[in-house]
């Protein structure tokens, strides 16, 4: 160990006063870092916290580094450590041996200022780096390991303050800062992202031979997803004893949608590979690993991983319950498998994720293409966090205040129905979500009231009415079969509706508009003809709104919402009477809203019936 001195003058007075703690568990340390031989200040360094190893108080674990440095080589530490445990702080810098800033470990509180930490230069380790054919590897970075975790991100590291050097044109290097005995070195170059070598020590020349690199081709073709995908390829160093807690290696290649990219400098090994997506929602956000998998790459070979979806459908839906909250929107994820009912999002993170995206306050969303299978679509929303609260993980990450999920089955030949995800307050930490059976029961509402509620302006109330009707089984099927009628697209009736769009009577204009919404594409040709005839302002606006609604993923009027919900209930029932009602509706005018909804429902039921 080196020595730790105190600056003379005014700092000596501060030190005398610092014998009494200014706060329970408080640590306030300050001073400067200098070269032990020259006395010159060291401007780039890192401060690391040390903790005694469990079972052996004489051995210390170092980590939790704080990157720092200044032109004057000064440092300041202000922290609070409770529990009465001993701690220590040391300095790590390029070319020097690690040095504690106090002579001995200490138990907080401790306040010291005016410290001078003198760093001793380490031994110089020389050597040569060659590729698998013995050719010199120029411009390779050589890191001395063991003082600080080496976190390599695409061949670069921003936070490393330990000992590092670079090879010359002959592949030779001289690295100052080694201690006595064997050492570990990491080499990173354009030819190979990272490789670890163990050498005998500074007393002999190090000869490092890199293995042949592996190649990885990544193909990306997912309709409806991002134009450019960012991948994350991380070497599973935690599974390699010599690399564990010493090196992390991450590469982040990109590929255009419909194209591919090739990594040619990958180290042989086992990797964690995923597409990464970052979703921002107001001041919060989260990342997602999509299509995550493990890949094994062998030296001198080329592997291919496809992120391609040739079959399937996007999931179109709506998150309900954002109105009346301060949440800017919701984050939606698609995960493989049925709903878990887990209240804590952390319990879902290990499930395979196929897509992640955000939606605005209207709640509408559309995913990328999802292959056939059973999925859970999860939604979470957060209001602006309170100044103080417990709605957080221990890491400080804000827990979503509203959560919801829905089951979706993707079939090969027919798109899924629009999915509705009602949000509900997340239960307090440590408490499970209340089950529907545990909820307080209320007398069943009259069927006619539920029918009316299907068209409620409040989407949440409409959803609740849908669930209540679905639970009434045969009663609900009989009601819906009697209330729903096949659409008739009589050209004369359509012309009268279009003419009434500029009627002098407001009620007539509203009824004509509502009828045309229900006719949907069955009325489209006549609507476009009427638009070309240069109608008046109000009639033009109503026609344009009707045409725009044809491409809307969600029903735009109360009558359309009721129709969608009613067909949804019949499909969920799937009984012979329900199917008979759907067939009757599907026989109506082609292009009408209820006709197309019923036909799609029958297609899904038929596909589910097939073995």
- Give the termini distance in whole angstroms: 75 Å
Helix content: 10-25%
Largest sheet: 6 strands, mixed
Global geometry? elongated
Portion in strands: 35-45%
What is the total tally of β strands?
A: 32
Spans of at least 5 consecutive residues whose pLDDT stays below 50 are 1-23, 392-396, 434-440
Helix segment tally: 11
**Overall residue-averaged pLDDT value:** 86
Structural class: alpha+beta
Structurally, how many domains make up the residues?
5
Radius of gyration: 34 Å
Task: Provide an overview of this structure.
The protein has 11 helices and 32 strands. With 611 residues, the protein is α+β, with helices and mostly antiparallel strands. Strands 11, 18, 19, 20, 22 and 23 form a 6-stranded mixed sheet that branches. It folds into 5 domains: 4-119, Sandwich (Immunoglobulin-like); 123-209, Immunoglobulin-like, CATH 2.60.40.1120; 214-308, Sandwich (Immunoglobulin-like); 313-386 and 396-435, Immunoglobulins (Immunoglobulin-like), CATH 2.60.40.10; 491-609. The chain starts with a strand and ends with a helix. It is elongated and about 100 Å long. Helix 9 packs parallel to helix 11 (593-609).
